[in-house]
Amino acid sequence: MPNQRLSSTTAITNSAGTVVVVLLGQPRGLQWGEAVEDATDAIKNAAAQPCVSELAGEHRRGPFPAAAIGISYGGGQKKPGNLRLGGPEIQNVLEDLIKNKGIQRLAGFAANGFAAYAPRTYGCYNQTMEALLASHSDLRRNFKNSPWAAMTFNMGPQTVCFPHLDSGNLPWGWCGVTALGEFDPDFGGHLVLWDLGLVIRFPPGATILIQSALMRHSNTLIHDGERRYSITQYSAGGLFRWVENDLASDKQRDAEARRNPELKAKRDAASATCWQTGLSMLSNQKEFWPQA
Predict the structure, then answer these.
(1) CA angle, corner 32, sides to 28 and 33, nearest 5?
(2) Matching Gene3D superfamilies, A to Z (predicted)?
């Protein structure tokens, strides 16, 4: 069982040395502890709001309220747009959360880890975000210091996820997950990566990077009376396809391709090599540790 230590970073690789999970831990220093406490208090207070309590109920990730903010594309949307969940009350709660200094620091730390351990994928995310913002003036990014398009707040009081895949995310992309709350990480709250056969200690304040669309993941139970929250940054796969299609949907470009043999051949070739393109974005341990 990998032990997620707060003061160190550990990269988990496959047999070929490809980095598949990164246990970022957290930076050293008292000020960082204050940021974690600030973020935890903000989510705890948000969870107590009636508009958040109304979200309570079991969904595919677990029996806890969850709310997302940011940019998304999919589920019948005709173009990328800002996520809208419920009425103005919940929107105000989410806006206040992303303005919280502690949450902003957590978001930036996860993004910096992403840039360090998956620089090519990070570059793809950042370029896609910049293209979206340049082409759609109505879109609003959550954080200037993060390339991810959206953030979900899992607001407990006991955020323990069911085994699931985030199939709407970019298949070869990454998401950043940060655990928060007051619970005993030696007993519970572990991250379970089912396909890898790993159970990872995941203490409050720690951040882990995973490929959540590919790796079935969940959490272990925590003690009664303990509290666990989490925040996750990610980008919907549809955003990347929209940009790759020169600001059009797959449906629109496929219809054009049926009338244009040259365009069809180009799209078929891109489709046939998309997995190779994705794999080429992943990092290998030898890029960081040449003697490995």
Answers:
(1) 100
(2) 3.60.130.30
pLDDT for the residue 259: 94
Within 13 Å of residue 205, how many CA atoms lie on the same side as its CB? 19
Which residues have a Cβ under 8 Å from the Cβ of 19 and sit 6 or more positions away? 11, 12, 13, 117, 118, 282, 283, 284, 285
Q: What's phi and psi for 118, nearest 5 deg?
A: -140, 60
Record the tokens describing residue 286, joined without a space. 């030898």
Q: What pLDDT, in 10s, does the model give residues 57-76?
A: 667 788 899 999 999 998 78
Query: Does an H or E element contain 11, and which?
Result: strand 10-13
User: 130: how many CB neighbours lie within 10 A of its CB?
Assistant: 13
Q: What is the mean pLDDT of residues 194-220?
A: 97
For the chain, give every domain's residue range: 10-244
Look at domain 10-244 and name its CATH class: alpha beta
The residues, ordered by sequence, that sit 6+ positions from 252 with a Cβ below 8 Å of its Cβ are 245
- Asked if residue 139 lies in contact with residue 247, where contact means CB atoms within 8 angstroms, the answer is no
Yes or no: say if 120 and 278 are a contact pair by the CB < 8 Å rule. Answer: no
